[in-house]
Amino acid sequence: ILSITVNALSTGNQDNCKATPNNGHKSSCSIVKESRQTTTKHNIPNSEMSVPKFSTEECYALIILGASGDLAKKKIYPTLWNIYNNELLPQRIVIFGYARSNLSVDDVRTQATPHMKVESGSMQKFEEFWKANRFVKGQYDREADFDVLSARIEEEFRDATVVHRVFYLALPPNVFSHTTTLIKQRSMSTTGWTRIIVEKPFGRDLATSNVLSEHLSSLFFEDQLYRIDHYLGKEMVQNLIVLRFANRLFAPLWNRDNIASVTITFKESFGTQGRGGYFDNFGIIRDVMQNHLFQTLSLVAMDKPRTTSAEDIRHEKVRVLKDVLELDPSNLVIGQYDGAPGADEPAARVGYRDDKGVPDNSQTPTFAAATIFIHNERWEGVPFIIKCGKALNERKADVRIQFKEVPGNIFHGGDKRNELVIRVQPREAIYMKLMVKTPGMGYEPHETELDLTYDTRYKGLDLPDAYDRLLLDVLAGSQVNFVRGDELSEAWRILDRALSAVDNGEVPLHRYRYGSRGPDAADEMVTRMGYQRSETYRWNEP
User: Fold this and answer.
1) DSSP label of 167
2) Percent of the chain's residues with pLDDT above 70
3) Which element (helix H / strand E) includes 513?
4) At what angle do helices 77-85 and 123-131 cross, to 10 degrees?
5) pLDDT score of 47
6) How far apart are CA 340 and CA 154, in angstroms?
7) Among this protein's residues, is 315 annotated catalytic?
8) How confident is the model over 150-163, as pLDDT tens digits?
9) Could you tell me which of 29, 28, 72 has the C-alpha nearest to residue 168?
10) Among residues 70, 73, 76, 85, which one has the least CA distance to residue 113?
11) Catalytic residue among 292, 315, 375, 446
12) How far apart, in whole angstroms, are the C-alpha atoms of residue 94 and residue 32?
């Protein structure tokens, strides 16, 4: 868990980094140094050991390839500003935007500012943040343009001893090959390390993913590649490791002898909202299930790692993924939402096929529920039910560990199964559904919960955004929250046959109404797999 109670970085020797003024800007070293305070307090109770500390004698160039795109303006620049504002970025960093568009830093600022949280007291620091930004116009397949980019970086840090480079590929997959080849040939750091951040999708299936992985591995070592899945930066997903392996309570229970089923759910209450043309190329299985939910599954199901090092944790994740049987298409339910004509909200009246760029005959699923099985001693026979969808009745993501019934029941069927729930979003929480005596006379069992809701237990808690954690991890060289190449391959292997069946129209596409729970067939499959839904229990948010 990332702590943000930190001591600001010490100033140290300034001679190793003398970034020269560029286009009237101050040097980046002095820019960032001006904004540093002695100590910054934040409301996250934890050891500061988990906060990366960067050398004050080394420089950093962070290059955003695709700086004019939605991902850059809506997520990357706001994330960098948030980290900068919390004084967690390296002191000597310059951010280079790179895109084909003819833009300036002011143009990028205009596009990104509406997506940034800027308080009135932070305006001076906000100005300083943008002074540490540059923009370079160029194509993604032209050597000369990458030479210009490298020259700009070298000029910026012409007197620096060590300059590290991070390339963030906020790009469509069709330009990955050219771009990464030119990074390798023309833009690698000669005085420090170079790291590459790759955004999903990592291919469309096992074959295309392998092609991409082979291409990247031909250019870079695995420890230079950071395949980013922002779900691995979420507080409660990261909490799975601590919850499982720092509490003796769960160790003897976490197996097929005690657990009846595991359900991992990702629900969005909105549709594609104008992104249907892009979404139609992938669908919900490739967009959410293959990455976010399989990463969560591996953390739930893996064995205890030797240590908390990146390689030990990722090794155990790969081990359990190798034990997962490929998904049988008969254990897959897919659906596509229709508009709800009588809905109060106009967006809810729009069906998926009505969205911009979606073909009238589209068969792309916006909902999927799958049951998979793990063939090993710990999990043999336990169904792992994975559900994800758009335009559903609520927004939430959670993990539900449902335990088996108490043997020798003495309450004549009045008791319900215990269930451990890890609520990823919204309102992070961990709660255990269990039976207690109904208050008053008698001994009738009553279902309630032991509840740890974070914003109740940790008053004033300000959790870091997932991207905040992950970008800091890249700069610090920690790969624990990133996807390794063999993890990626195993996830695609599990889904490959089922995806082929979906693409070939061999899996029925069910219709469901905007704002519903999804297709009835999904609930029927979940019930068939043994999950018991308590109709009488409702979690009341504190």
Assistant:
1) E
2) 88
3) strand 509-513
4) 120
5) 35
6) 56
7) no
8) 999 999 998 889 99
9) 72
10) 73
11) 292
12) 9
Instruction: In whole angstroms, give the CA distance from residue 360 to residue 349.
Output: 16
Whether the link from the prior residue into 173 is cis, omega within 30° of 0, is no
Residue 523's nearest CA partner among 335, 287, 253, 279 is 335
Residues 107-131: b if buried by 16+ CB within 10 A, e if exposed: ebbebbeeebeeeeebeebbebbbb
Structure tokens of 292?
Answer: 């976010």
Single-letter residue type at 474? V
Q: Is residue 270 within 8 Å of residue 346, measured between CB atoms?
A: no
- Bin 457: left if φ > 0, else alpha if -120 < ψ < 50, else beta: alpha
The model's confidence at residue 172, banded by pLDDT at 50, 70 and 90, is confident
- Total residues found in the chain within this entry: 542
- SS3 of 118-150: the string is CCHHHHHHHHHHHHCEEEEECCCCCHHHHHHHH
Compute the distance between CA of residue 263 and CA of residue 297 in angstroms, rounded to an integer: 9
Q: Are β-strands 6-7 and 39-40 bridged in parallel, bridged antiparallel, or unpaired?
A: antiparallel
Burial of residue 295, with CB atoms counted within 10 A of its CB: 0-12 exposed, 13-18 middle, 19 or more buried: buried
511 by Cβ neighbours in 10 Å (0-12 / 13-18 / 19+) ranks as exposed
Query: Which run of H or of E encompasses 370?
Result: strand 367-372
Distance CA 195, CA 164 (A): 8
Whether 37 shows a pLDDT value over 50: the answer reads no
The rounded percent of the chain whose pLDDT value lies above 90 is 56
Q: If we measure between CA atoms, which residue out of 187, 150, 160, 191 comes closest to residue 20?
A: 160
**Which secondary structure element, helix H or strand E, spans residue 236, and what is its range?**
helix 235-245
Predicted structure pTM score: 0.84
Contact 143, 185 (CB under 8 A): yes
Nearest 10 degrees: Cα torsion 541, 401, 228, 369 = -100
- Two tokens, residue 289: 């299930």
How many other CB atoms are there within 10 angstroms of residue 345's CB atom?
12
Three-state DSSP state, 154: helix
What contacts 19, CB < 8 A, 6 or more positions away? 27, 28, 29, 59, 92, 94, 156, 157, 158, 159, 160
| Token representation of residue 529 | 């797999």
How remote is the C-alpha of 459 from its chain's centroid? Answer: 25
Concatenated DSSP letters of 473-487: HHHHT--TTSB-HHH
**What residues are paired with 368 via a beta bridge?**
334, 388
pLDDT tens-digit series, residues 258-285? 999 999 999 999 999 888 888 998 999 9
CB 167, CB 194: distance < 8 Å: yes
Q: What pLDDT sits at residue 235?
A: 78
In the chain, DSSP finds a helix count (H) and a strand count (E) of 17, 17
